[in-house]
Design a protein that fits this description.
heterodimer; A: 987 residues; alpha+beta; six-stranded mixed β-sheet; 21 helices; 50 strands; 21% helix; B: 103 residues; two-stranded antiparallel ribbon; 2 helices
């Protein structure tokens, strides 16, 4: 029989649509529910009381609440790659075809093999991990950690890529209203009428808060009707944005709030639409009207399926017309708990008992029900679902649902996000927002302690009205809706004191009992924060929404103090769990950051280039020819062709900074450690840039195009940071210099043309009126030219490869055609396009430093460029590079290395030891920074730093490879393996 | 956070890059050519303090932010390190000029 617990006599709720039946599966069994159900209400309607197993003891657990505070009913939602662990059944909106499974059990849910943990509970008390798995140490890796990892956690990840789309967005408003219960709705109405720009966000898929779950009247009509009228009125206002299914998860600086909107979670298929959106909301003011959460009373065996919060039972009956049991009992310490009995009885549900801890006159009578005043529940029975409760007066009552009410806690969470500490309110027996709230946050309704209806509606209305007026919005605001103030009388009763061995649960999700808390205190954990961490209280996915206060009451009682003396825990974002995919948004995989393509990318793609990520850039790593089977084949060929004839490489990724102004030369003098002001127009110079602490920051060449214009190149990696640094120097240090900077990295396609035939090739491309002969355009010359019949270009005679070489720059839009023109002109010379690997090989053969050498640890002195640091002028890093340790004689120096056995391959990262000495840090004399196979020399070569290296040429040392634990004899040589005198550059 | 840029109005902090204490603008003078040993020592000390010594205040803090995703202005932002309240935003260049910073 389907939906045994659906109340068919009552059919008044507008929250469910009985015309629309949904089919869903739980643990493989098919059930039916209605549109408007949550998975929890549908499971309860079908009599599925057992829904999961507890974290530590694997005790059977049932649905406990009707909202996002749920500690028990955590399930796997959906299947395969779409599977979401730890979804709360109480907020999962039902849809046709929903598939859910229970989690945290081995074998069937009803007969969980891990339930043996419950029998071992005497050994699993507070802090048992700390106590049990101390020693022997060797067992950690082999035994304890695997066992703990296997047993830990609740839900399981699919371990597959999340196939859904997630997005991010930005919203702006005058007033953000958090929570669309009675207070939030009346606030939105007042602010909207006044003319403020309003965002009203609510985590539920139906706005209205408790009004959908209660039988109260507002403005002379049913509460739910007033809700629906108010939403209609708000929806008609252009200045109001209604956001249901949207949880505001955090309050950040300067009125910025973060919210998660579940766009398609309630649909079977997302159909390409984002599943969730992470919103960043910029607000002038915010009204926190997040309502309140009912708290339980701790008593022995209070964790059985069927034991629920009283207001949740009322929600299921009123909103979803489901009764969680056929004979319902109530255990309360306050007047509000009685409403559950009244509402359920009105719907024809049998009330088995009302147990009130207060010795006062009964508030109502119910036919056939035990009314027990001044009485407590002291035990329960029923393995997989509640069967009986035992009272302090000895009575045993048959009941399958116990509704527990311990009073209400204002939802202060977001008020604490700037470390505002909640204050204890003696009348309410609860913490209310206090301390410093986030600026411009106001709290209304139950969240602020206005627990009864009329005051909640009024406080929202009044705050919104006042804020709108202050903002200058003068629209006519109608009077606030009228309602009754119901009784909120409560009492200072938190848990049942018992001397039996039966455990009383405080934190249902993390299996923390009253005994664990007492034990933690006995062991010296007196601060609530320490107890929390030691027992794991409130550290589960529900963050202690129902357990924190009862736990503090236990601590207070045990310590003989009051609750405010014990203190309080505060809350951090997020309010409810957020999936990692939502935080990632679109920034996943290749979209993690933008991809930058070089100007010759299309050309390289056509040649079948293998690309490599260099920062955000995709650069050609090598360009294999048909028949080549190994990357070395391609790279060796590219190097050989270049060294024998001519090769081209896209070097556009290097940073290009245009520097102009009367004082541009003086500015560069201060940025670079070497002199630049004297550089002649039409010439290029190598420059080394230091950080202020004297460490090498970046290097590159800078060309002087005119008296007042320079073009600097930086390394690819530092293009952004060097530009930032130069702007800092310009604006903050030397505002008197007449100089302006702009990045031109993306504006020019720049190619190196290197090799003995470089000039011959270029002569075919460069327009005839420009003399690029060795005399007319010598080494380190530069100039503005034109190519291919009038295309503007810049030519620099600089070399990274050590060959006769040029770099030619054209506007980026000519990138592909320039490369094609160069290759066409080069066909008679057997020209080649080479990638970053060949570029690397040639610069190592030449002994040029690059990123591996400029790793943030090296000085000009280490690089063998100590004398470049001009002492005739001020420059960044000049002073501190003089510190004694940075210029000491036996410092590491950059030199070259050969393997003594030339058939060996060197490894970058090898550390050097004097031969015969043990490989350890005490004997460490330096390390290999870059290695390559040199096709020119026919063996492996390397460059690196070694102590006093410049004076040790010819010496053999031991290179130690710690990763492979082997050593190799290497000979110290000059870092300039090819053409050490630089003759090739100048021909 | 929102930084109220003096030229561009309120901008999200995500557009900016943070550098640190605005005292980084107070770069000591160079020792000069042919400085005495004593002068060199003094200047080294001044640079050491400039680069490494920070007050690390709990309270109002003047700090440098760079509008990298915007107009590339360096700003001096006065921010309370506890509340993050921003009470003043100035163009660093204006501060540098007022401070007499010179090449």
């Amino acid at each position: 029989m389907s939906q045994v617990n659906r109340l068919n006599s009552a059919s008044k709720s507008t929250s469910i649509n009985r015309e629309k039946m949904f089919s869903f599966k739980f643990n493989g069994q098919t059930f039916q529910g209605y549109e408007g159900d949550t998975l929890a209400s549908a499971l309860l309607a079908n009599g599925q009381i057992l829904v999961g197993r507890s974290f530590k003891y694997h005790r059977p657990r049932g649905i406990f609440t009707a909202g996002s505070e749920e500690p028990n009913a955590l399930i796997h939602l959906r299947t395969g790659a779409h599977q979401e662990p730890n979804a709360r059944a109480t907020v999962a909106e039902l849809f046709n075809g929903l598939v859910a499974t229970s989690q945290n059990h081995r074998g069937p849910l009803k007969y969980d093999l891990m339930a043996i943990n419950d029998l071992m509970s005497p050994f699993l008390s507070a802090g048992f991990y700390y106590k049990t798995f101390m020693w022997p140490k060797v067992l950690w890796e082999k035994l304890y950690e695997p066992v703990i990892r296997h047993a830990a956690g609740l839900g399981e990840l699919s371990k597959l890529d999340d196939p859904d789309i997630y997005d991010k967005g930005f919203l702006h408003c005058d007033i953000l209203i958090i929570g669309a219960g009675p207070s939030g709705l009346s606030a939105a109405l007042a602010a909207g009428q006044a003319g403020s720009r309003v965002i009203l966000a609510d985590e539920d898929f139906q706005m209205g808060g408790r009004l959908n779950s209660e039988t109260y009247e507002v403005a002379g009509m049913a509460g739910s009707e007033w809700v629906s009228n108010t939403i209609d009125a708000l929806a008609a206002m252009d200045n109001v944005r209604l956001m249901k299914r949207t949880t505001v998860i955090g309050a950040f600086d300067h009125g910025i709030y973060s919210a998660v909107e579940r766009k398609t979670d309630h649909l079977l298929q997302s159909d390409g639409k984002p599943r969730q959106v992470l919103w960043k909301i910029y607000s002038k003011h915010a009204i926190l009207s997040a309502g309140s959460t009912e708290r339980p009373i701790a008593f022995p065996n209070n964790d059985r399926p069927g034991v629920m919060l009283a207001a949740a039972v009322r929600s299921y009956a009123n909103r979803w017309e489901v009764t969680p049991g056929q004979a319902v009992s109530i255990f309360t310490n306050n007047d509000d708990g009685w409403r559950t009995a009244t509402d359920l009885a009105a719907k024809g549900v049998k009330i088995a008992a009302v147990v009130d801890s207060r010795s006062i006159a009964p508030l109502a009578e119910f036919p056939g029900a035990h009314i027990e005043m001044g009485t407590e529940v002291v035990n329960t029975s029923g393995r997989h679902g509640l069967q009986t409760i035992t009272l302090s007066n000895g009575k045993i009552i048959d009941t399958d649902c116990l509704a527990v009410s311990g009073g209400w806690n204002p939802n202060v969470h977001l008020s604490c996000h700037h470390r505002g500490i909640p204050q204890w309110n003696k009348e309410l027996l609860a913490f209310v927002p206090g301390g410093e709230l986030p600026p411009e946050m106001y709290v209304s309704g139950a969240a602020n302690g206005d627990l009864s209806l009329a005051s909640a509606i009024k406080s929202g209305h009044d705050i919104a009205n006042k804020l709108s007026k202050a903002l200058g919005h003068k629209g006519r605001v109608k009077a606030c809706a009228k309602a009754e103030n119901e009784s909120t009388a409560n009492s200072d009763f938190w848990f049942v004191k018992t001397d039996t061995k039966n455990r009383s649960w405080v934190d249902l999700q993390n299996d923390v009992t009253t005994k664990d808390i007492v034990l933690a205190q006995q062991e010296g954990f007196n601060s609530v924060e320490h107890v929390k961490r030691y027992t794991t209280l409130g550290m589960a996915t529900d963050q202690g929404k129902t357990s924190n206060l009862p736990a503090m009451a236990v601590m207070a009682d045990n310590a003989g103090k009051t609750i405010p003396e014990i203190g309080t825990t505060i809350f951090r974002p997020p309010y409810t769990p957020v999936s990692m995919s939502t935080f990632a948004g679109r920034s996943r995989g290749k979209d993690f950051r933008p991809t930058r393509l070089t100007p010759s990318h299309q050309y390289a793609e056509k040649q079948g280039a293998v690309f490599v990520e260099v920062g955000a850039w995709m650069r050609s790593q090598w360009l294999p020819k048909t028949g080549e089977t190994h990357w070395r084949e391609s790279v060796d060929r590219e190097v050989t062709q270049t060294r024998n004839s001519v090769g081209m490489c896209d070097v556009s990724t290097l940073g290009k900074i245009d520097i102009q102004g009367k004082d541009a030369g003086e500015f560069l003098n201060r940025i670079y450690c070497n002199t630049f002001a004297t550089l002649k127009v039409g010439m290029v110079r190598y420059g080394l840039m230091l950080r202020e602490d004297g460490i090498a920051m970046d290097d590159g060449t800078t060309a002087r195009l005119t008296e007042t214009q320079f073009v600097m190149t930086t390394t690819t990696a530092n293009a952004v940071s060097v530009f930032r640094h130069m702007e800092f120097c310009r604006q903050c240090l030397w505002p008197d210099l007449d100089v302006h900077l702009i990045s031109a990295t993306e504006q020019y396609a720049q190619y190196s043309v290197a090799g003995p035939n470089a000039r011959k090739l270029l002569e075919k491309v460069v327009d005839k009126e420009f003399d690029i002969s060795n005399e007319g355009f010598p080494f380190m010359a530069c100039g503005e030219i034109s190519v291919c019949g009038g295309t503007p270009a810049r030519l620099f005679r600089i070399s990274f490869s050590g060959e006769l070489a040029y770099e030619i720059a054209v506007p980026t839009r000519y990138g592909v055609s320039m490369m094609e023109a160069l290759m066409e002109a080069g066909s008679e010379f057997d020209s080649v396009v080479y990638g970053t690997e060949a570029l690397g090989v040639m610069r190592i053969e030449k002994g040029h430093a690059a990123g591996n050498e400029l790793n943030g640890q090296t000085t000009a002195h280490n690089l063998g460029m100590g004398r470049m640091v001009s002492k005739k002028k001020d420059s960044i890093g000049n002073m501190l590079s003089e510190r004694p340790n940075m210029v000491k004689d036996d410092a590491n120096r950059l030199v070259g290395f050969f393997p003594v056995d030339k058939s060996n391959n060197l490894n970058a990262g090898m550390h050097f030891m004097t031969t015969g000495k043990e490989a350890n840090t005490a004997n460490d004399e330096g390390w290999m920074t870059s290695v390559a196979f040199s096709p020119s020399l026919g063996h492996s070569i390397g460059i690196g730093y070694i102590k006093n290296g410049h004076e040790r040429t010819g010496e053999t040392v031991t290179a130690f490879n710690g990763l492979q634990d082997n050593t190799m004899e290497v000979e110290i040589v000059s870092a300039h393996f090819i053409d050490p005198k630089g003759e090739r550059l100048r021909v | 956070m929102i930084i109220n840029h003096p030229l561009l109005g309120p901008r999200d902090a995500a557009e900016f890059v943070y550098l640190g204490d605005a005292s980084l603008m107070n770069r000591p003078e160079w020792k000069g050519e042919d400085a005495s040993e004593e002068q060199t020592e003094k200047t080294l000390d001044a640079y050491h303090d400039y680069l490494y010594i920070r007050e690390n205040k709990a309270g109002e803090h003047k700090e440098l932010w760079y509008h990298e995703q915007g107009d590339r202005s360096w700003l001096v932002v006065t921010r309370h390190t506890i509340s993050h309240e921003i009470t003043k935003v100035e163009l660093a260049r204006d501060v540098a000029v007022a401070n007499g910073n010179k090449s």
